[in-house]
Every structure is written in C-alpha cells, then in structure tokens.
Amino acid sequence: MTLQFRLTIALVAVITTVVTVAGIFAVTSAERELVDGVDDFLVDRAKSIEDLQSNAEAKSFVQRDERRSVLSEFLAEPDAITQIVDPKGQIIFAFPISLPLEDAEIKIAMQKDENPSGVTRIRKSTVGDVDYRILSKPLPRGGLLQIGRDLSEVNDAISGMVRAFLLLGLIGIAIAILSAWALASQLAKPIKRLSKTAEHVARTQELTAFIDSKDGDKEVRRLAESFNVMLRALATSRDQQKRLVTDASHELRTPLTSVRTNIELLAKAKSIDEKDKELIIRDLKTEINELSLLVDEIVNLATSTGFKSENFVTEDLSVISQEVAEKFARRSGRTIDITSSGDSIRDVQSAAIERAISNLVDNAIKFSPEGTDIVITVKNGTVCVRDFGIGVREEDRDQLFERFFRSVDTRNLPGSGIGLSIVEEIIMRHNGHVFVKAPENGSGTEVGFTL
Fold this sequence. Notes:
Blueprint: H1 3-53, H2 58-61, H3 64-75, E1 81-85, E2 91-95, H4 103-109, E3 121-127, E4 130-138, E5 144-150, H5 152-204, H6 218-268, H7 274-303, E6 313-316, H8 317-332, E7 336-341, E8 345-348, H9 350-366, E9 374-379, E10 382-387, H10 419-429, E11 433-437, E12 445-450
Helix pairs in contact: 1-5, 6-7, 8-9, 9-10
C-alpha cells in the first residue's frame, strides 16, 4: 500500500473509533437518564399512594370495598400499572393488567411489620411483548405495593437515537474518508516529491536536484534539508573524486613516460655503454620509487576521509606532538626538538591530528638538509613545525596546501605534494586554519596550524 493509502486508513480508523465510542457513550448515557426518569416516576407514584393510605386504617386499605375509592385519582388516567399483593402473596388488586410476581417479591409481601424495613426493589420485566420497569415496596402489616411503567417510549427513543447515530456516523465516516484522503495526500506530497527526486538522481546522476525545504511542516522541512545535505555531500565527494583522478593521472603521466622511454631505449639500443646503462637503470629505479611514493600518497589522500567518522575527544596538542616527534626521531635519526607553552588542550579527533602533525614533520625532514634539526613549537592551540632547508618562495606560499603542488625549487626532491593538502583538510574539519611563513631569523620554513 502507498503511504497515502496507509495514512487514510489510519485516520479513518481513528475517526471511526472515536465516533463509535462517542455514539455508544451517548446512547448509553441517554438510556440511563431515561430509565432514571422512569425510576423517579415510580418512586414518586409509590409515595403518593402511601400518602393516600396513611389517613386510613391499614386493614381498610386492603379491603375490597374501600381500595377503589383510595386509588380513584390514579385510575382515571392509567399511566402506570398499580398492583397490590396481600400478606399471603396473592394479588388482590391489579389495574389495568397484572404484573408477574417473583419469589423474592412474594417473600417480601408475606413479611408482617408495622414499620417495614425491606429495601425498595426495582427491576425490568417483560409482559407479553412489552418491557416494563417495576417497583416493589413492602406495606405495613405485610403486603406489597407494585408500580409498573411501560418502557416502550424509552425503547423507541433509544432506537431512534441509535438510528440517528448510525446515519450520522455513516455520513461522518464518508466525510472522514474524503477528508482523510485529502489530508493524507497533502501530507504525502513532500514524501512523493522526495521520492521522485531520489529516483531522478538515481536515474540521471544529477546531484544538483535539490528540494525546496521551505514548504511543509517542520519534520518535512528537516527531511528535505537532510536530503539536500546528502546531495551536497555526494556532489562534493564526486567532485573530489574527479579532481583526485585528474590530478593523479596528471602526476603519474611524467614518471610513467620517463620509465617507458628508458625501457624503450634499453630495448632498441643494440649496444649501450656500461656507464650509460647504469645511468638508465638508476633513473628507472628513481622513477619507480617516485611512482611508489606517489601511489602511497594517493592512497593516503583517498583514505583520509576515514577520519571524518572519528569521535572528538579532549587532548593536549603538546602530548600528541611529543609522541609524533619521538616516532620520527627513531625512524629518521634526526634531532627533533619540541617546546610547549600556554593552554593547548582542545577537542580533537586524535588520530586525524596525529596524522596532520606527522605530515608536517615528514615534510620538514624531506625538505631540510641532513644533519639539521626539526623544531616543533606548541603554544595556545598552535602547532608550528620549522625546518632549516631552502625555504619557500613568497609567491608559492598561497599554493603550498594545494594538491600535487610542487614549487620549482623542490621538484627534484622526493614527494608528491599531497601531504600538506591532507593537513589542510583535517584542520578545516576542526574549524582551524593552516599557515606557512618564513622564520624571523635564519633559513628554512615554518608550517603549521591553529585550533
């Protein structure tokens, strides 16, 4: 079933349940009120008859020659059945018809007491095809007074109410179905639009088919915004992928061409001087090393997005820098000094920041002469790595963090120009910024970041 159909069924089910419960409650309450009204009538009639007989002797009340004169006021308009049972349990008066007696009522009638304490009993009984409400009340010195009231008017009223509720309920449910369908259609419209957009994106690979997130309820707007964010992320990822492939193919072209040329030279030349042969082989090894390094850098760049899912934790940048310095000192045999001051405790992705500092240190080792030191300075959230190499020309500083960028002065040195671009990506994810500058004194370059 479609979402619209399911929403319609759910809304109609809720409305039908509410209407049904309300109808049952209304009919039940009305029936209870009408029956209570009949009961009040029976109690009042019994009290009136008791008041009439209170002025006469109790035994004269049950005598045949006096009872009609006592009850004449009520017999003129017989709106109820009046019945008297003697202390022997025999009906001695019933007008206009007699009422059925139950064993419990006969026992009450046979009790003789000047002050009867029996509880007034009200029940429902059927005489012929007519329902009656019957009140039974004990009389002084025995006997029983019974008043019965026809419930036909009550039943007719309840039946009419039920028919009216059924008719109104059916009309209401029909209106509810139409209203629910229209409401469900309105509610499902943004979902349908989102579904069509998703199908369009899947079919055409067009990642700019954004949904207008200004329409609809708050939840629908959030869903549309989330979908648009996903599209932007996919578009960015695809652009980065295309850029990576383009840049990588461009960078791989030069060493591959050199390798191919050298191999063709070795294959075509009939005789090569041993010295020239060694030069060609050395050049091949160099290019193959460059290819290996470039492939490693491309893999690192492609996998650097894995840091995005890392949780942020509170870390001291000076501690991370110290660990990186010790690791590279063991690997390279270079002296790496570290100084720390101020507050450098930040919420960071530990592995990502360690990778960023490692790239800075690795870069400094590559582009500084053997025997020179590397200096790491950590101060108030800023990590600066200084080398004592040839430095970076001022016109190249703005491009230093771009992918595959190599300044003219360093193109004969190992490296692919990817390491610093990874640093910038990590730092930007931490809402920080990277920098490159010339030292205030001496040679070399200072490269780092601030969080």
